[in-house]
Amino acid sequence: MKIIWNKLGRTGIAAGLLVALLVAPAQAGVVSELDVPQDQVTAEDGADVVESSDVTNAQATLTGEKRYISLAEAMELALTNSSDVVAAQNDLAAAKVSLEQTKGQAKDYNKLLGKPSTGMLTPSQYQAIVYAPEAMTKAVEMYEAVAELQESAARLQVIQQYYTVACNGKSEMASLYAYEKAQNQLKTVTSRYNQGMATKLELLSAETQVNAARTALDAARATTVQNKRALSVLIGLDPETNWSPSTPLQYEAMAVGSISEKAQEMVEESPTVDIARLQFEMAALEYDYESKRTHASTYNGQILQLNYKTTEVQYANTQRNTLNSAKTMLENMELARQQYQIYMSNQEILEEVYRLAVLQYENGLNTQNDIQSAAADIVSNDAKRLQALLNYNIAKTAVEQGIISTGSEQ
Question: Who's near 391: CB < 8 A, 6+ residues apart?
Answer without folding.
Answer: 25, 26, 332, 336
